[in-house]
């Protein structure tokens, strides 16, 4: 029996994973700016702050000890070690967003995406890739924040992550100089996912 008008169902997690250097930070800023209803999960990390990063906006920066205490209090939805640092998704904002029918954006790695999918099977997983490995290397070097060995480790990690993209729902290529097009594609994915019949009560 379908009741009309339909009621919006619980919200969902939109997970974006991308090899380091793909441009996910500026793309997610542009995406969030283009859709004020979209929420963003702010991860907690033990990684040192990079120049220009803002506490509470890019990440919650914390110590190894405090990170451990947050794990002990079970306040992470998921957490993982990436490039030798710890990163975790605070549980509260995700649970609130999903309950309130909101879409919440998580910019996390493959391990995190897998964990979120296990908890929320209706999560939408987007894998964002650069057009080529050469382009990724250029972008990593251009950033100027990583040592040579960090760049090599991030390139190897990128190859490893790319092998796992079949676990994702969507693949989006961030072509060089085409950020706006990438944002439009992500907006189209969100619009389609919001319209999915299974997300509506009574349908
Ligand atoms: P970066 O240090 O370059 O900002 O991020 C390094 C990697 O950690 C990226 O792949 C990023 O998506 C991932 N990451 C950031 N926050 C989280 C999180 O809360 N959980 C997981 N699993 N990965 C995260």
Strand and helix layout:
Layout: E1 7-8, E2 12-17, H1 24-34, E3 39-40, E4 44-45, E5 60-61, H2 64-72, E6 76-82, E7 85-90, H3 91-99, E8 103-107, H4 110-119, E9 124-129, H5 133-143, H6 148-162, E10 170-173, H7 179-195, E11 200-201
Parallel strand pairs: 2-8, 2-9, 3-8, 4-5, 9-10
Antiparallel strand pairs: 1-11, 4-7, 6-7
Helix pairs in contact: 1-7
Bound molecules: guanosine-5'-monophosphate.
Short description:
By secondary structure, the chain is an alpha/beta fold.
Key features of this structure:
single chain; 203 residues; Rossmann fold; four-stranded mixed beta sheet; 7 helices; globular; binds guanosine-5'-monophosphate
Provide structural commentary:
The chain has 203 residues and is of the alpha/beta class. Helices cover 40% and strands 22% of the residues. Strand 6 (76-82) and strand 7 form a beta hairpin. Helix 1 packs across helix 7. The longest helix is centred in the last third of the chain and has 17 residues, at 179-195. The structure holds guanosine-5'-monophosphate. Guanosine-5'-monophosphate binds next to strand 6, strand 7 and helix 4.
Based on secondary structure, the structural category is: alpha/beta
Per CATH, which architecture of the domain at 7-41 and 101-201? 3-Layer(aba) Sandwich
Q: Could you say which overall geometry the principal axes of the C-alpha atoms support? A: globular
The number of distinct β-strands equals 11
Oligomeric state of this protein: single chain
Radius of gyration: 17 Å
